[in-house]
Amino acid sequence: MENLFKTRLDEYLKENGISKRKFAEKVGVSAASVSDWTTGKIQPNAESIYLVCKAFGVSADYLLGLTD
What we know:
It is built from five helices and no strands. The protein is about 65% helix and about 0% strand. The mean pLDDT is about 95. The two termini are about 15 Å apart. The longest helix is centred in the first third of the chain and has 12 residues. By secondary structure, it is mostly helical.
């Protein structure tokens, strides 16, 4: 099963010209966490998913690949 979270997060960062470090600062997590999420090394916890959703202005269902 494809990890759509990592794909959608990486696309968002590229489309908006935001570095992983700047995004990490925006959501209050480490740059290493964002890097690990975009490579699929680790999955974010529920709180982190919430923070990313708030930053994106999208639902968790979209980020996780449950909806388009």
